[in-house]
Write a structure and sequence with these properties.
heterodimer; A: 112 residues; mainly beta; six-stranded mixed sheet; five-stranded antiparallel sheet; globular; B: 113 residues; seven-stranded mixed sheet; four-stranded antiparallel sheet; 50% strand
Amino acid sequence: KQEVTQIPAALSVPEGENLVLNCSFTDSAIYNLQWFRQDPGKGLTSLLLIQSSQREQTSGRLNASLDKSSGRSTLYIAASQPGDSATYLCAVIRGGADGLTFGKGTHLIIQP
Amino acid sequence: NAGVTQTPKFRVLKTGQSMTLLCAQDMNHEYMYWYRQDPGMGLRLIHYSVGEGTTAKGEVPDGYNVSRLKKQNFLLGLESAAPSQTSVYFCASSNIAGATEAFFGQGTRLTVV
């Protein structure tokens, strides 16, 4: 059974810092990996999708990498801002219609 | 752009009551999913559908039923609600499973008393 772990569970940093969120998965036979953002009481917003054949994706200040063989992904946030405060979720899909398997998230607070 | 819309957004049920959660997507997606999110447990898959007229069980299907009579709608039913079903429910859809982004609704917060 696929298990997804996110470290750290919570992180609080001052504004302006660059930071890295980590995601690991136990079964490397994934089809893609998706990073989401969730604000309190809200739904999930897709940030980046990385196909298994890709090694990284970038969107603005966000960069996500994927090392499928080692079962790891990182989300890099550059020049963090208070508006980046949210819970960040990592999810993997094996393919077919299995649906996404989620980690429990990293709760991020950016201090002004 | 509506995307994925869930109805209702909030609901309080008494134990034993029934209800149906509606999910509608306007992206012509084939795949639709229902998840529940609980503190400390993360998101877990309840049921999913790979196309109109099809449904399948996910990780935590007990106590729930689903139907997909139309491609754009995916209904989640609770026949006899229990306090253990207090949760936030999310619907999601995607075009080609695994190859494209999954889009999520805003969630339904259900409390069973």
